[in-house]
Amino acid sequence: MSTSLYPELWEIINTQQQFIALLVYQLSSIYANSKAPRPTDIADLDYQKMTVDELPKVVEMEKLDYKELLQEHLHQTGKPLKPVQRRASSPTVSSAIHCPRCQAPADYLYLNNGKSDNDQYLCKVCANLFNYKNRYTKEVIFQCPHCEKNLVKIKDRKGFDIYKCLNKACPYYKKRLKSLSKKELKQFKKNKSLFKMHYIYRNFDLTLSDLEAVPDFETKVRLNKIHSSPYVLGLILTYHVNYGLSAEKTAALMFDVHQLKISGQTIRNYARTVAHWVQPLTDYYPYELSDQFCGDETYIRVQGKWHYIYFFFDAEKKIILSHRYNRHRDTETAIKAIHDVIRRFKQVPDALQLVVDGNPIYKLAQAFYAQNGIDFEVIQVIGLTNKDKVSQEYRPLKQIIERLNRTFKGNYKPLGGFHSGAGPLAHVTLFTTYFNFLRPHAKLEKNVPVLLPELNECPDMPQKWVKLLHMSENFIKKRQAS
Ligand SMILES: [Zn+2]
Ligand SMILES: [Zn+2]
Question: Which CATH architecture is the domain 278-481 placed in?
Answer without folding.
Answer: 2-Layer Sandwich (3.30)
